[in-house]
Design brief:
It is a single chain. By secondary structure, this protein is mostly helical. The protein has 2 domains: 122 residues, no CATH class; 166 residues, Farnesyl Diphosphate Synthase (Orthogonal Bundle). Helix content is 68%, strand content 0%. The protein contains 13 helices and no strands. Helix 12 packs across helix 13.
Length: 303
């Protein structure tokens, strides 16, 4: 790797050359995300939508890699943050790996002041920084709430940027409600696995108040936490669905309803299990879940 001057212009590959890498990463990570972008994203934003998903999928996997030393993880994060800042100053360096070129291409094509894309990139970078900082320690309720806010804002702004861009989308508290509910369920779904990777998605205050020293899915305190969080997510879904229903762009409404349905299904599984969280939920990928998601999404769209 050569250390090019910071002002050296980056010889970016063409969109046609870069698109296969971004699309391949997206498809391997999430079939739903891949087909949502392929079928619903604005045609002139499809390639960037793949880039946006793929870049952070790659970066998140690097941060979560258990074989990576803490110092190397922090160095990786600092490099990505520096690239983001350099890109928006117009001084992206030239020593980039293919995945980092995805970030460079996104920024190079972003000519909109305070764009939804920039909000997505900055908030997702903050989410990644938080994960690096919290690994191996407990977090407070305030930190958890801020994490949810960052992630919900990033995801919703990306949705609005890539699908039905420019269509009316009211700016109010309900704007991020649906995605916040999804974040809550996502953290419940991954709680058992995340604990093994050094992430505890239950606030320190709650653990101390309930005398919890080990995260055990059978512990009544952990099951009660899951119950409370599912109830919160349900409230968020109701508020978020009402917001999505106001959006004029049908593709955007379809994408929003499909996203919510995906996590509503997981919430149903958690409820069915009596709030006893599991390491895996293979039912998410079953034919039955696909039928339920399709029915739930379409009924929401045409109600």
């Amino acid at each position: 790797m050569t250390n090019a001057p910071a002002s050296l212009p980056l010889p970016l590959p063409t969109a046609r050359d870069a698109a296969p890498l971004a699309a391949a990463i997206t498809r391997a990570a999430s079939a739903q995300s891949y087909y949502t972008i392929r079928l619903l994203a604005d045609r002139d934003r499809t390639a960037d939508a793949y880039r946006a998903y793929a870049y952070f999928r790659w970066a998140d996997d690097r941060v979560d890699d258990p074989t990576t030393a803490p110092a190397d993880r922090l160095a990786f994060l600092n490099r990505q943050r520096a690239l983001l800042e350099a890109g928006y100053r117009g001084r992206m360096p030239g020593d980039l790996c293919p995945e980092e070129q995805l970030l460079a291409e996104l920024i190079a094509g972003d000519d909109e002041a305070n764009s939804g894309l920039q909000t997505y990139l900055r908030h997702m970078m903050a989410v990644m920084a938080f994960d690096v900082a919290r690994r191996g320690r407990l977090i407070s309720a305030a930190e958890l709430a801020e994490y949810e806010r960052l992630l919900a804002t990033a995801v919703m702004e990306a949705l609005l940027h890539f699908i039905g861009h420019g269509s009316d989308a009211p700016v109010n508290e309900a704007r991020y409600a649906a995605v916040r509910g999804a974040c809550v369920v996502h953290m419940l779904r991954d709680l058992v696995e995340d604990v093994g990777n050094g992430y505890v998605n239950v606030p320190a205050e709650y653990l101390a108040a309930r005398g919890v020293t080990v995260i055990d899915p059978d512990d009544p305190a952990i099951r009660d936490w899951a119950r409370r969080r599912v109830a919160l997510a349900r409230d968020c879904f109701r508020e978020g669905r009402a917001y999505i229903g106001q959006l004029r762009n049908r593709r955007l409404r379809l994408a929003g309803y499909a996203y919510v349905a995906r996590f509503e299904y997981v919430a149903r599984l958690i409820e069915r299990d009596g709030y006893r969280l599991r390491a895996e939920y293979p039912e998410r990928k079953s034919a039955a879940s696909a039928l339920w998601l399709a029915g739930r999404t379409l009924s929401s769209l045409f109600q």
